[in-house]
Amino acid sequence: MHRGVTIFTHQVLKNPNIVPFKSTCFYSQSNSFTRRANGFALFRLFSFTPLHRRVPDPDDPANLMKEDGVSVCSQMWIENFREPDRIITNLASYLRRFELWVLAYQKVCADEIGSYMPRSSITRSALDDLLALRNAVLDNRFKWGARLEFFIKSPKDKTDYESLSKRKIKAILTTTQPAPFQDKLVQEVLFMILEPIYEARFSQKSFAFRPGRNAHTVLRVIRRSFAGYLWYIKGDLSAILDGLKVGLVISALMRDVRDKKVIDLIKSALVTPVITSPLDGGEKKKKKKRKYQKKRVLAEDEPKPDPYWLETFFGFAPEEAEKLPSWGHCGILSPLLANICLDELDRWMEGKIKEFYRPSKSDVIWNSPEGEAEQGNTSWPEFVPTSGPDKTRKMDYIRHGGHILIGIRGPRADAATLRKQLIEFCDLKYMIKLDNESLPIEHITKGIMFLDHVLCRRVVYPTLRYTATGGKIISEKGVGTLLSVTASLKQCIKQFRKLNFLKGDREPDPQPCFRMFHATQAHTNAQMNKFLSTMVEWYRYADNRKKAVNFCSYIIRGSLAKLYAAKYKLRSRAKVYKIGARNLSRPLKERKGQSPEYQNLLRMGLVESIDGLQYTRMSLIPETDYTPFPSNWRPDHEKALVEYIRLDDPKTLKEQRSCIGEQGLVSPQDYISMLVWNYKRNAIVMDQLYLVKTAGSHTEGDDQLLLSSNHENYDPKSNEEEETEEGFHASQM
Predict the structure, then answer these.
(1) Do 209 and 335 meet the contact criterion of CB atoms below 8 Å apart?
(2) Relative orientation angle of helices 69-82 and 636-648, to the nearest 10 degrees
(3) What single-letter DSSP state applies at residue 602?
(4) Got the DSSP string for 161-208?
(5) Cα 302 vs. chain centroid, distance in angstroms?
(6) DSSP 3-state assignment of 510?
(7) What is the pLDDT of residues 669-713, one digit of tens each?
(8) Beta partners for residue 477, in sequence order
(9) Are 645 and 78 in contact (CB under 8 A)?
(10) Strands laid side by side in the 448-450 sheet
(11) CA 141 to CA 134: how far, in whole Å?
(12) What are residue 396's DSSP bridge partners?
């Protein structure tokens, strides 16, 4: 091809008459077409004409991606939130969407290699393997938990499984191994398909393992909705998170999803056994001497381990948020399946809440028939005024993972009856044997522990100001109860002791943090500052936020002071504070503890700047966040979905147009119609004026009569049928 073009160009340069240029854009009558001009014209011609047109490869998997995977997921969320009650029968069409598989590959690779992989960076071989995995799933050839034969491997997995020795193969087949890369891909695709289906159906009473909801949301809901309750039932159903019978999980799943291929995939993931190996040789490890461990250099594609401050914060996980379900080969699907199973309990409790509610007219707060009307002071919802002897019977419920909390306003006998019904329901539905000890009934005066926060009640006597009839402002002393949500310092001490930061109960004594012994002072302080910032955020909604954070700062500061005293041989914490200041921001040295050249070295950039510890004084700790929490709260992404669906509904447009018409305004569509109508009227009037003037028999009165017809009343409905495309374009001009 290249040789043919070269010969043709050479012949044209020698004989310009070969190509007729009379009708081309390069021909000019004023200048003769020379060889140089001819060559320039050909250069421009060939520069704008592609010589090589790549023929699309029909076997390229990239041709299967018609749109972006994120847009496919967004469409699934919109469809399920638009019709949340419909039964899903065809999910195989989404399993065939190659865009979802590519998006799942990007997500799993981000977890594997620690960085995001753009779609343009995915190799052709990876796309081919990904397509083979998709076809295997659709053809029922995929098997969970494969150890040696894979359709696709991780980008960082360079192992040649065909050349392994028998000993290594036996070790792979008989010992505990991480989940295969292809299993994670299938789990991610199933998760992206099933999550929007069930998020549109889940109860608003559950808050664990769901997007946009966390432990802080639970604490805010408790402060908003659990004020005034006397009896509390705290239940531990975490045995469900350890696993249920496969039949119970599949039956719960088939309430809303009836697609056989998806159900079979999840069922095989639950049924396929997970190979685990017991830990042996513990005594042999004790006999071995501890060798010096060199610092291991991470590979380029290897993700960094969690920093020390993050590991420490994970150690503070409360009991309710500590357990994460892991069922068979389901992986990230396990929390979703647990919520699907426990959603039946949520729906049952919602029915009990409506059944239990009995309003009282003499009650100050809850006296509406439905019980959903917002009453009282919404900016101070944790305060409940004291009512008369006839009080409203009311109940509320919340669930975080496998732990539930039920608040009851009424006699204790009602709480005991509800507990009995709850035990029977769990036995019938989940085949779990519960007793009264696992569902204790406690009074609010004893303090209810939930998510490492204590719920208690205090009697307060605030001054109530309100406007009476006639606009008169009345101030009087009131009495009521205040729901207090405080951080448990006892639980905080327990968590610090578990992490070896202190010892003792009554007078906790900080212990040196030897994990950071070989780190620099700047790095150690930076790690602990991140940990303290996270603790400040964790206790954001606690009434005693300042006290709890100040205690954490005292423990961390004392631990670092003891560490520095041992590291720099200063013998006591007092000497460390004297040299390094209260917040340990000054540099410490081994002998005299003074470093006069530090500022000069810092200026030259030869040493790290040392940040002092934060929150060393009570005044530096932020106040408790008392932002009002709405009763019908929903996450931001659900609000956006609901608003988008509402605006996309044609009924909403009709309502807006009718509202605009009632207010005497003009909608944009009517305004455009009016412009078109005015254009037509002006054209007709001008034509009539021209005809009259050319006839020579017109007067000034005729002009005024014709022009006044342009100002008649406009009716947009009568003009809709006359509106044409030509008139619309004319109005735009």
Answers:
(1) yes
(2) 70
(3) H
(4) GGG--HHHHHHHHHS--PPPHHHHHHHHHHHHHHHHHHHTTS-TTB-S
(5) 25
(6) strand
(7) 666 776 676 666 667 656 665 565 555 544 555 555 444 544 444
(8) 463
(9) yes
(10) 383-385, 480-487, 453-460, 448-450
(11) 10
(12) 407
